[in-house]
Amino acid sequence: xxxxxxxxxxxxLSGEALAAQDGFGINVAEAEAIAQRIQDVxxxxxxxxxxxxxxxLWRGKQGLDRGMDRATADYMGMLGTMINAxxxxxxxxxxxxxxxxxxxxxxxxxAEPYIRRxxxxxxxxxxxxxxxxxxxxxxxxxxxxxxxxATEIDADVVIKATKVDGVYDxxxxxxxxxxxxxxxxxxxxxxxxxxxxxxxxxxxxMENKVPILVLNLWDPTxxxxxxxxxxxxxLVTV
Length: 238
Hints:
Blueprint: E1 8-13, H1 28-42, E2 47-52, H2 60-65, H3 70-94, E3 99-103, E4 112-113, H4 116-124, E5 128-132, H5 142-152, E6 157-162, E7 167-168, E8 180-181, E9 183-185, H6 186-192, H7 199-208, E10 212-216, H8 222-227, E11 234-237
Parallel strand pairs: 1-2, 1-6, 2-5, 3-4, 3-5, 6-10, 9-11
Antiparallel strand pairs: 7-8, 10-11
């Protein structure tokens, strides 16, 4: 464990990470693939917490475009994150990984209430902790929830899971000349309007000096190599 660069991580997953190819719903095989990546690094002795979005189940913009109340749309999204959290928990526990889902909104029948000290204790005992329901407040994204929870549990890094190998100056899928950044500062991300996480989350990480590592979780070795200190993905720091 002494060779690890990061010993406690906050993994930020989009809801689409669990989706089928059309971007909607829950694909059990995708959940199992993510669970396998998590199990691989847990075996290394890494303490792992996760925050997951809900874009595969509900996109609030659709409701807002029809005049839906913003708070209502956001609460629906929080419930969607709980569905995804339970799906990921099930995939992990089928691999034998002890997992706890903690919700920012009380729902005692399916999840523990979020209590900071209890979450840290779960991590210390080797359990994976999945934080659901965002921050519990409307008008805040799951990016912001990830930044907030990372500081609360004293995570060494926020790992933003994507399907590309880092951050580029333009979309590498449409621009073959796109340039990849190995490192960026928080200010660079804000000034360049790079869509890594929303500006509230970036600012929170900057003020609390929590690095953000953007990498391709679907590269089967990327996460392990990053935790061992290899230069993988794009690191956002001071």
